[in-house]
Design brief:
By secondary structure, this protein is mainly α. It is built from three helices and no strands. Helix 2 (43-76) runs antiparallel to helix 3 (80-105). It is elongated.
């Protein structure tokens, strides 16, 4: 099956969005590492801040990775098999996002913040 120009453009956009997601995860991890080394806080507080920064980078990166997968699957190759694979990927990444959110914030995203 030959891709149309629109599909080729969407494939490129999906790949760029994936690349942005990977850059966010890697860049966030490197930034967190630099901040960990440079911080003057006690060791346990530095570690907690490091984990929170890395976790937030992973969460944001996952959002971009899911968006890239959706673009490529829905626009470029919308077969039943690809949609099923996309659904599984989205469920896994959503589970990861929710568990990371719980670990970082100490509550589920739908729970109210304690005042």
């Amino acid at each position: 099956m030959e891709l149309t120009n629109f599909q080729k453009i969407m494939e490129i956009i999906g790949t760029v969005v994936d690349g942005i997601g990977v850059c966010i995860v890697v860049g966030g991890a490197l930034y967190s590492l630099v901040m960990f080394i440079a911080e003057k806080h006690p060791q346990t507080e530095r570690y907690t801040l490091f984990r929170q920064h890395v976790g937030k980078s992973i969460l944001l990166g996952l959002e971009f990775l899911v968006a890239g997968d959706i673009i490529r699957t829905v626009v470029v190759a919308p077969t039943l098999q690809n949609v099923i694979v996309l659904s599984i990927i989205v469920v896994i990444r959503t589970f990861l996002s929710l568990t990371l959110e719980l670990e970082l914030e100490g509550r589920w995203p739908w729970q109210k913040r304690n005042a």
